[in-house]
Design goal:
The chain has 407 residues and is of the alpha/beta class. It folds into 2 domains: 2-71 and 367-406, Urease, subunit C, domain 1 (Roll), CATH 2.30.40; 73-360, Alpha-Beta Barrel (TIM Barrel). It has 16 helices and 16 strands. Strands 1, 2, 3, 4, 5, 14, 15 and 16 form an 8-stranded mixed sheet that branches. Helix 10 (275-282) crosses helix 12. The two termini are 18 Å apart. The structure holds N-(iminomethyl)-L-glutamic acid and fe (iii) ion. Fe (iii) ion binds next to loops.
């Protein structure tokens, strides 16, 4: 048994609603708190001195100076298994070139597909571990990682195997997802329907056999996969037993409607969502995932996060860390910057980065600090939780724990 503390404040984020608005007054703040853990699981959380008296045999892991403890962040949407970079795309974009001009100059998703195909599984694994560990040091203890830069049976499997290999070599919890439906690969000679049938018939059964992931994602967009084809694909993926998630309404509408119709665990992006989409999502069990890093990377508007919460949606915030549209990969900074523009409370931001993001991944043992949960935690060098967003992501955690141990 181990007792960690004292913490000036602990925000366990327990007992809060899964959906809708949150005010900071709703936060249960424990002052001079401690966390009692055993075998990586939280046994008790409360007043540090009382916990110490009640558990005299507990080993004490003492904190130094003022610290605020939060659950580790859950980044429920990333593409950090890739090779190379797209700095050339970025320089063209900030200079005003269009999506089409960049694609015609050899940029876009296909460029990363080419670079990722040219990398070995070992190289992909190593760079993925480095990115996961950077995220971990910044308090992100659970990270969803998508494939989607392979776009052939063999290359998608290479990515998923790299994610599996990396999982065993980082203390961050990695959650894999198959995004073979990111776009129809340029070297595929058939139609969009034929590509999706190939994935359904050949790749998904293999992924299931090898237990590489139980999540299937798709990019619904005019430049990627149509809404009709996506509905058919996701329905069949669900019938095979996969949870499904959607890249929805990034540039044009249509994706979130499909997501809700098929019962997707989440609809992510939503920059182009209108009132009807907001209502649909709010009335559904599909988590709405905002990806402010993509808005920052593309110089576009944020998704309607405030409106989604006001309408009653479950809003998670994720980084979308990828080499094209969201190269920064700083989840806290992105969430903090979006919250100022969208007018989100700190409670809404922290919920979106923890237990609401865990819901998007269907994880129920992380994202909240309470007895029985995995002790994934992070502490910030301040005495008041409000300082964390105030510094807009520049203040980083002084300590991060996964399964009760310092990472
Ligand atoms: O989530 N929108 C589609 N896919 C990624 C971008 C991937 C890329 O540009 O490499 C996204 O933003
Ligand atoms: Fe994405």
């Amino acid at each position: 048994m181990k007792l960690t503390g004292p913490f000036t404040q602990i925000l366990p984020l327990d007992g809060l609603p899964l959906k809708g608005r949150l005010d900071d007054e709703q936060l249960n703040i424990i002052h001079n708190g401690g966390v009692l853990t055993e075998n990586g699981i939280i046994l008790a959380i409360g007043d540090f001195d009382e916990l110490r008296k009640a558990n005299p045999s507990a080993q004490i892991e003492e904190t130094i100076g003022p610290q605020v403890l939060l659950p580790g962040f859950v980044d429920c949407h990333t593409h950090i298994c890739f090779a190379g970079n797209r700095a050339k795309d970025y320089s063209m974009r900030i200079a005003g070139k269009t999506y089409l001009e960049i694609a015609n100059a050899g940029g876009g998703i296909w460029d990363t597909v080419t670079q990722t195909r040219n990398a070995t599984k070992k190289e992909l694994t190593e760079t993925l571990i480095q990115r996961a560990n950077r995220h971990l040091a910044e308090g992100v203890t659970t990270i969803e990682v998508k494939s989607g830069y392979g776009l052939s049976l063999q290359e998608e499997l290479k990515q998923l195997h790299a994610i599996k290999a990396a999982s065993a070599q980082t203390k961050a919890k990695l959650i894999p997802a198959c995004l073979a439906a990111h776009m129809v690969p340029k070297d595929f000679s058939g139609s969009q329907e034929e590509y999706l049938i190939l994935i359904l018939n050949e790749l998904l059964p293999k992924i299931k056999d090898e237990q590489l992931t139980n999540r299937v994602d798709i990019f619904i967009e005019q430049s990627a996969i149509s809404a009709d084809n996506a509905l058919n694909y996701l329905t069949k993926a669900k019938a095979l037993g996969f949870d499904v998630t959607v890249h929805a309404d990034q540039f044009t509408m249509g994706g979130s409607k499909v997501a809700v119709e098929v019962g997707a665990v989440s609809a992510d992006h939503l920059e182009a969502s209108g009132e009807a989409e907001i209502k649909l999502l709010a009335e559904s069990d599909t988590v709405a995932v905002a990806l402010p890093g993509a808005s920052l990377g593309l110089g576009m508007n944020y998704p309607p996060a405030r409106k989604l919460l006001d309408a009653g949606a479950c809003l998670a915030i994720a980084s979308d860390w990828n080499p094209g549209s969201a190269p920064m990969g700083d989840l806290l900074m992105q969430a903090a910057v979006m919250s100022a523009a969208e007018k989100l409370s700190a409670a809404e931001v922290f919920a979106g980065l923890t237990y609401r993001a865990a819901a998007a991944l269907k994880i129920n043992n992380r994202g909240i600090l309470s007895p029985g949960m995995v002790a994934d935690m992070q502490s910030y060098p301040c005495a008041d939780y409000r300082e964390i967003l105030y510094y807009q992501g520049k203040m980083k955690p002084v300590a991060v724990w996964t399964g009760g141990n310092k990472a």
